Amino acid sequence: EQLHTKCRNTTYGTNNDISRLPVPDERVEWSQPWDDYHPPYFTAKGILGKPWADKEIGDADFNPTWNAMDVEYQVDRTSFTGIYKIVNGYPLNPLGRTGLRGRGILGKWGPNHAADPVVTRWKRNDVKEVVHHPITNKRVLQFVGIRRKDNNQWAFPGGMVDPGEIVSQTLRREFLEETMNSLEMDGETKSQAEKHLEDFFSKSSDVYQGYVDDPRNTDNAWMETVAKNFHDDDGSFVGTLNLNAGDDAVGVKWLDVSSELQLYASHSSMLKKVAELLNAHW
Ligand code: RP5
Ligand code: MG
Ligand code: MG
C-alpha cells in the first residue's frame, strides 16, 4: 500500500507557520503504537461559517452521518477506501497519521470529494503528424494542465463535488471554470460553452477513484477524487478550445505527458494510468 507523503513531515499547505509533527514511515499506520502522539490541532479560521464547510465537531447543531450519503447536509461521507474509523467523534484518515489534527483548510471532516478531468490529445508536429518519443518510440500524449493559485504547482483542473452534484457535472463544470474561465462569462456565452463541451464530455474512460495524497490532508480530513479521461484522438475538437485560466487557476496549457512531470498531490500517478490506458509514452 502506498503511504501518503505530501501531507507528512512538512508545514501545512500554504500556512508556513503551522508545522506538522514529523511522522516516520514506520509510524504512519494507526495500528503502530505511539502513546505520546500529540500532533497540533489546526482548523483554519477562514473556513468556519462558510456555507460549504462543516461545523466544528461537538457543535450541538452538527450531526453528521459518517460512512454514508449524509442526506441532511447533501454530503457524500463515504470513502472509496472503505469504512473509516471514528475516534472520540473525529473521523480518522484511512491512510494513517499526518502529524496534524483538525481539518486544516478542508471544508469537510472525513472525506472531501473532488473530481479531476484529464483532457488529452496526441502531440503533433508542424505538419500535424503525431510525435513519437525518441527513446520509447511511443506516441507523446498531452493533457490540459492548470497552475494552482494556492501553490503554483501544475495540476489537473479538478475541484470539489458541490452538494447535490453528480461527478459528471463536476468534471465539466471545473474544466469550464479553471481552463475556460466560465465564471467570468456572461450567461449566454457560458451556456454556449457548456453546450460546446457536452458531446466531448459524454464519453470518458475511468482512470482512478480513491484517496489523493494532497498536502491539505490531516488526521481527520482528506481528499478523495474520481479522475476520468476525455481523449481526443484526432485533436480536432480540442483544437477549438479557447484556453483561459480562471477561478483557482493562474495558468493553463497543454503539457507533455511523461514521468518527468512534477505535478500537484498524486496527480502524476493518475496521469501514469492515462498513459498506460492509451499506450502513450511515459
Ligand atoms: C486534489 O485537489 C484533487 O485531485 C483535485 O484536483 C483538487 C480539488 O481541490 P481544489 O482544486 O478545489 O482546491 O486533491
Ligand atoms: Mg475549481
Ligand atoms: Mg480546483
Explain what the structure shows.
This is Nudix hydrolase domain-containing protein. GO terms for molecular function: ADP-ribose diphosphatase activity. With about 280 residues, this protein is of the alpha+beta class. The protein has a domain of about 160 residues: Nucleoside Triphosphate Pyrophosphohydrolase, CATH 3.90.79. The protein is about 15% helix and about 25% strand. Strand 4 and strand 5 form a beta hairpin. The longest helix has 14 residues. The structure holds 5-O-phosphono-beta-D-ribofuranose and magnesium ion (2 copies). The site of one magnesium ion has 4 residues, from loops.
Task: Kindly report the name of the CATH homologous superfamily of the domain at 114-215 and 225-277.
Answer: Nucleoside Triphosphate Pyrophosphohydrolase
Q: Indicate the mean pLDDT.
A: 94
Q: What's the β-strand tally?
A: 15
Roughly how much helix do the residues carry, as a percent range?
10-25%
Q: What hetero molecules are in the model?
A: 5-O-phosphono-beta-D-ribofuranose, magnesium ion
SS-based structural class? alpha+beta
- The H/E string reads EEEEEEEEEEEEHHEEEH
Could you tell me the CATH topology label of the domain at 114-215 and 225-277.
Answer: Nucleoside Triphosphate Pyrophosphohydrolase
Please give the radius of gyration in angstroms: 20 Å
Strand content: 25-35%
Q: Tell me about the biggest sheet?
A: 7 strands, mixed
- Assigned CATH architecture of the domain at 114-215 and 225-277: Alpha-Beta Complex
Q: What is the CATH first-level class name of the domain at 114-215 and 225-277?
A: Alpha Beta
Poorly predicted runs of 5 or more residues: none
Q: Distance N terminus to C terminus?
A: 22 Å
Number of helices: 3
Instruction: Choose one word for the global shape.
Output: globular
